[in-house]
UniProtKB/TrEMBL annotation:
EC number per UniProt: 1.8.5.-
Protein name: Protein-methionine-sulfoxide reductase catalytic subunit MsrP
Domain of life, source organism: Bacteria
One matching Pfam family: Oxidored_molyb
Organism field: Massilia suwonensis
Record family assignment: Belongs to the MsrP family.
Upper classification of the organism: Bacteria, Pseudomonadati, Pseudomonadota, Betaproteobacteria, Burkholderiales
Cofactor: how and how many bound: Binds 1 Mo-molybdopterin (Mo-MPT) cofactor per subunit.
Amino acid sequence: MLIKPSRDGSNPPLSSEITPREVYEERRKFIARIAAGAAVGSALWEMANREAFAQTPAGQKLAAKANPALSTTEPRTAFKDATNYNNFYEFGLDKGDPADNAHTLKTRPWTVSIEGEIKKPMRLDIDSLTKLAPLEERVYRLRCVEGWSMVIPWVGYSLSNLIRQVEPNGNARYVEFTTLADSKQMPGLRSGVLDWPYVEGLRLDEAMHPLTLLTVGMYGQVLPNQNGAPVRVVVPWKYGFKSAKSIVRIRFMRDQPKTAWNVSAPSEYGFYSNVNPRVDHPRWSQASERRIGEDGFFKKKRETLMFNGYPEVASLYAGMDLKKYF
Ligand code: MTE
């Protein structure tokens, strides 16, 4: 027990309470030995952890062949911006939350189940999925429904490669993407902002379009967790929320899937959600956008382009009233 002498000296320590020099010197050596032991222990702990992290190769280089035919030549958004200004509500609502919180996402082992109206249902682990087709680098614009955009070099392959492997049957008209919802890894699930899991969907012909990218990396490396590791889709002509992150199931369906944003606010987020400067969001204009990294008081906003500047997809919607099917 430690007895503190009072400040005025009225309660001086007894001589028997004063530790003899040789004893406290020995005690100091002992404490130093324990501290050294603890350092070894923590080094071992760190090594073990590094091993655990080694199974999660976020940041590892990912070889991919550039595909200039499907890439924009606009200046790329800085990696720092693309990885620190994110929407991934499973990790929080603020733009910096995913970068701060997504380290808890365990991306290995990871299996994607492919099911529904197909002849060959399968469960693919993330490494087999990554190797299913040659990886390409495609620099796409990504336009968020909130009115900002980025230009990102994604790594992946056309989702059509996977779709052809699983052979959709005659009933398959839509593809649904269900993403991970695990409250142990995803603190944002506590918020009731969406009806979890985050679900998105495409019509089968949209999913088959060569631009629709099954994405496993960006900037020449494995996807950072906050950008949807280990696998997401990127659909560049649609508002960013259609590009579902951290996918665990791809299901082929006869009927249009119920998608998370459409269920939560059907008048604001249609199933199609093609980037369309002529159809405003009920609460704001969609005519222009702010390019992340180009901020500044005098910087003019960019004009938003129809289909986000991918006119080659227009034929998918021939004859459709895009005000009705927004
Ligand atoms: N996927 C999941 N699972 N959860 C999300 O909250 N947000 C979407 C989309 N995919 C989201 C998601 C939205 S609104 C956008 S704009 C893009 O991811 C953002 O992708 P990025 O952070 O990689 O730029």
